[in-house]
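I am writing to request your help with a piece of structural work I have in hand. I set the record out below, with my sincere thanks for your time.
___
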Amino acid sequence: MPSLGNTSIPDADRCPALGRYIAAGCLVVERGDSGLPDDVWARIEGGQWYDLEPGCRPWHLPEPSPSQALDAIGEPPPAEPLSRVLNHRFFGVPGSLSFAGGLLRCGWVRLSVALASDRPDRLVVRVYILPDDVDNAIVPRSDANLKKARAALLARLDFSPDVWAGLTTRDRRDAPRLLDDSEDSARARGARPSLLEMFNSIPSPAPITSDIDDYDAQEAADNLLNSRVAGLDTALYLHQRRSAALMVHWESQKRLMLDPRLSKVADPRGQPWYYDAIAGTCLREPRFYDGPCGGILAEDMGSGKTLICLSLILATRHIPASAPDHLRDGSGVVVRPRVGSLADMAAAYITRNSVPWRNVFGDLAPYGVEYPRCVAAIRRNPASYTIPIPPRPRSTRRLGPSPTPRTVYLSHASLVVVPSNLVQQWKHEIAKHTSGLAVLSIDKDLTVPPLERLLEHDVVLFSFSAFEKLAGSGRPHRLRPREAGPLWDSPLDKIRFKRCIVDEGHKLGSSMSGLARLPQVLSCIHAAAKWIVTGTPSKGLFGVEIDSEARDGSAAQQTAASPHAIELDDLKRVGSLVSSSYLRIRPWDCTGSGPRDSGASWHSYVERPWTTAPRPRPDGGADAPKEPSGAVERRLWTTLRSVIIRHRLSDVSNLLPVVDRRVVYLDGSFQDRLALNLFSMMIIFNAVQSQRTDQDYFFHPRQRSALSQLVSNLRQASFFGGAFFSPNEIRKAVKTAEEFLEEGKIPISTEDEALLRDAIALGRLAETNALKRCVNVFHEIPLYVEDFPWHAGREWSLDFAEGDPVCTDSRLISALQKLLRPLVDAPTSLQLLFQSGRFQACGLEERAKGIRDNKAAVAAATARLAESQSKTLAGNTGFGEDSNSAKHRSSVLSGKQEDTRPSAESLGRLPETDIAAPLAQAKLVSTASAKLSYLIDQIMQHQEEEQIIVFYDNDNVAYYLAGVLEILQVEHLIYAKGLSLERRNQYVVTFNTNPKFRVLLMDITLAAFGIDIQSASRIYFIHPVLNPQVEAQAIGRARRISSNTKDSRPVTVETLVLRGSVDEVVVRRRREITQAEARKCRGLLDDKPINNWIRNVRNLPLPGLKLLSASAEDAVGTEQPPPTGSGGGGPPSAPASAGRTADDVPPSPAQTAPLARPQFLFGRGFGRRPVHPDEDLAVVDHRSLPAEKKPNAKESGARGAAVAEITDRSRRKRSPGDPELVPASASATPASASASFGVGSGAGLWLGSWSGQATATPSSSSSRIPSPPDATGAPPPVPLGSGAGTEIEAGPARKKPRVRFAELGGGEDASGP
């Protein structure tokens, strides 16, 4: 039998109607299933195709004439044509192809039948499908039943070319073959990559400016590529130029994008067609959409996304927005009430057609030549368009107010919406990198200026919170199409902005972001281009070098494909961004982008096909039509490429500072191990006595809250945990355990008995430890000081003991420094102070004050613990509580403590030889915390040359560290949760601009996206971070591309790990954990290996403690890496077999961790007068603060009284969010701080000049009223308001541009050079 594929007659020649159809695939019909009689089957000839005709009825023999009847006598009657017989048999009621009969009759398909070449007992049915873009005028395509029938037919087809040729024994192909030779399709045809790999494989921008048709936009892109942007004071890196130029291209040039739902496939003959298996759509020609005017700028963190946006704004600020195409008036006829002047007519033409004019004869004209009359004519004829009245739905019966046409005015301005904590950073970047921009900032105050004033600005800067409030305070409005009417009454609704930029816009894709109103308000903004700026569109999408092998292997592990549940979460977030009513990316826009386009379902086309689960047919039957292999990958890849602009990490990694990561393993001091063992003791007591099953077991689901608190305290104990578990708590738990063993009512294993007896021995040792009892009384880290003044430290000590060194704490030393500061270089006065007994009396008073302040809190905490724990937890065990820490740290973490820092002029001016002899040799030699001792050594070693960030995850840790830094005169800031947003912003700006501050303590949970702390080059993590992405975000605060390559220095990152603690397990798990596991873990307890380690924790060996069970090192089950760096070494731990007794317990000084280099307490930079805590912070303009938060005269002016009073930190109770800021002194800011500037939210900065830089010039007036002109007649520096409704407006970028600053809502204008 000849092959069917070798027929020499083309389908179109054999049947001309088939030329309009797509050769889709074949159906194979067995002889037994065909329903054909043997005589009919015998009539089918091999190699012959029989076309089944649409609408063909059964054949009837016509009545012959008499002459014909006579001629036919003796001859057999004529046979019915075979094609008609087949048509009748196949499409009859029991026919094997009856499901396609309706399609054939209506002309949707054509069918041809022939015998298979390799199996004579089979029929091959070729199926030709009429494309949806052919003959729509004569063949209706709206029948839903026919669409379902076509989907069922497509699901049954075999798309193999072999079957089309009649070879039915070859492999079946359930979907057509992708036909695309591009890189995109080649990537899709390979093994399925992960979403993370796709994200990191997006090609780096390569803009071609000659492809831009608009001359002005092309010139702007060329200027960006050459870094010749007027008003940009910073040279752009190559990647920044390319990204900004591509953004101009996407904004100005329409891009035709192939509908991502369509797959370009090949029919069995190799001819192309376009297939959408989800909707069952077949097209002969491709369908295109306009590419998005905007997209997602997803450059990696630290690569300068803000600068890219600013350069884009500057390069195109002379180009106005244009009206939407469908609302543009093409007639060009302007109806005036009277005949206009020629100037007005020309101006109207210019504005109506969005002709750039500001760079010709406006304020951006070259050489400073202005044409005021032309400008006035243009401003009299602003460009606008009208949004018509939307048609009222015919089905509605509600008669509301009749809508009216709305007029929208075209603007040059860019609307920038940023998180509240980044408002000040944007202002700082604008002032640092640009000149001549007119900026309006609206943060807290909702006063929006009139329309006319808004049109005059280049940038309108909004915070998220202020922007959300534009929708009103009531229930969120229902989302409606843009043409349906405004959602709020605001001048913003009457402006078509040139572009809208949403910084950290990934929050729009999260339902948990708390920004319910923001997407709704953004959807109603008129903007010619819309951008989202974010380095991580979703949690699992971040920069990784795919093409290179990571040194530690972590990158390869992170790029491995994650489980579907995790990747689907990322897909949902990306989908919510591209399908949002803000970006309106077609065809994913869920609100409908056109009258005939209701939007495609991202879930149906991307999320669901990404899984391997079978999909039901649309009609509820068998499998739906299957997509070509790689179709979903190509669809996702095409969408990502069309909307995301980013460089591959390999293209920018050489510009980012090198990161030197180290893990520093420290041997804990005796007190460190004792604190960790107490937690082990409580866990063992509880586990054994509860039999690890009942509700009084720590790990029972109902004890989740208590267990979480215990784990949090256990983690803190790796820094310092001596304040946990009072002697009474220990004694009570030990007594209960002893009674449990004596009674013997519950049988326990030998191993549990050994654990219990070890824990009891530990409890007895801890109960009698003198140093721990001191900690429980004072709730401070013990510090040892050698050569105490006059060797009279008993009254200033914790243990009230004679001798040297003296055991004290940071609060007592701070009080001592305040007492001795005025006499630091006056030996006679010092001697009188000591001989009069005042020195000892003050020590006793401070010591008693510490005991008194803690006593009440300890009693309350003990009662609270006894009530909440003993009734629910077995063994009278507790989870520990640092009972008085909240009171102690309130003033420290809120930035309101009385300061002991030296004044600016006294730093470095007081040599140690001028210090009186009794004070000169007093030095700090050790602390009870190994991590604290190591941090002090490192900070004191590197602070002169580098600025340092210390990340913590517990407020107690920050409090303890800040106390020691304070007594060592280390200038530091604490970026804590309890601070107001204004205060946090002020700290970041101050740390970046004032080199006096050397250390920033930052809560790891606040290391948010977008915060720029590039001045730091050394980072310490007090505790290891389990989630690698969280750690990367924290490091990214400092690892950023600098505008000056000379300022770029390597970033050193050290993670501190205490041996034998949970830190070791976290570090090990961080090397092993996958991205999916990290995403699931909200805490350490969510990670099974860490949970098991805590559940089976063991005691650490201690001198004086004989262990009967395995040691904790054995329980950890990891290798013990050698120590890295120096410091932190306590006494060597004794093995469990040593069998030491209580007499072997080392003395108290040996129970601490010595410093590698002792630090003098009265030497380095110790000044003679205290200053206000807000010395050298970025100055705040109080006019921008709410009235109830403005400091009064007593707070801002009574500096002397505040200095004279000696107040303990624990006595200062102030609101953590109270922005009590006072003027800085004239010598506060060094000259080097003029390189850049920044202010906190709600703050103002005093500008001395406008040249792309600014100096923080102080004022002595709390009201911030400008001073009178100086002797030269020059006006005083002007405050750059940065709070709510701050307006920053500048003239053209010339040598001496005029700068005007005004406060909305009552502020006065002031002019300065």
